[in-house]
Amino acid sequence: MKPILISGRANPVLALHISQVLSLKLGQCKIDSFPDGEIHVEILEDLLGCDVYLIQPTSPPVAENLLELLLLSDAARRSGAAHITGVIPYLGYARQDRRSAQGEPVGGRVAANILSIGLDRIISVDLHKPTLEGFFSVPVEHLSAIELIAETLKKSLPDNPVLVAPDLGAAKLANTYADILDIPVAYIYKVRESGDKVSIRNIVGDVSGYSPILVDDMISTAGTMIRAMDALIAQKCRPEIILVATHGLFVGDGPGRISSFPVSKIIVTDSILQNKDQLPLPIHVVGLKTLLANAIRRLNV
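RE: above sequence
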């Protein structure tokens, strides 16, 4: 079945890189926004009988990019596509996987239901929780960037490194990195007070005199990382902190808050389009093009 790659506006650079790995041209598509904010999509390709891959992370602005992906899917379906796969490296609403109060929705379930209607299959990278795959009624190809990031870390490990999980949710992730890098692990117990406020209760493991490598699946407002760095510095870690995450959202005043700490490097992937010139941070971006292109090759049979 003939594959066609079409990019939304969320990360056209990654889409171009994937197409180059696959030696395919990106399908022509016109996307505009009307003055009132409505999105207009027009696919300028013959998709009859094609296997279509829509490349669109649902990164901030999440609602806009999610709707754009759904409109692309509908346009592809009405153009005769035989099969539609959403290549969604970063999946928005993934953190809303349960309710913490009576009047709240399960946002992850809502997003999964909507995407399952418009798509036949989904490719994503390092979901916030692997159990999110169960929210979808279509197959999910769940990829991981951990080995790619670990290979980057190996090239410039600091002296006396220690991997640090900034909360219990990242403990398994930290252990996975530790297995690859063969370095010790410490764990931070945190309590989330609100969407952007957390407090630290305890650190398990020795960090005094070590160079911490904080690992998580994403950096959003950086509240978790900030509190973790405060706790590590209080325990007299070395002033050479590395932050690692698959998804770098860097929203709000997060970048400015991070820049006030002794951070020597931040490693993220290009799941979300990064403008390094606008971030006052030492960022290294790991490319996902080959990982995603190989998944598309494997599925396009």
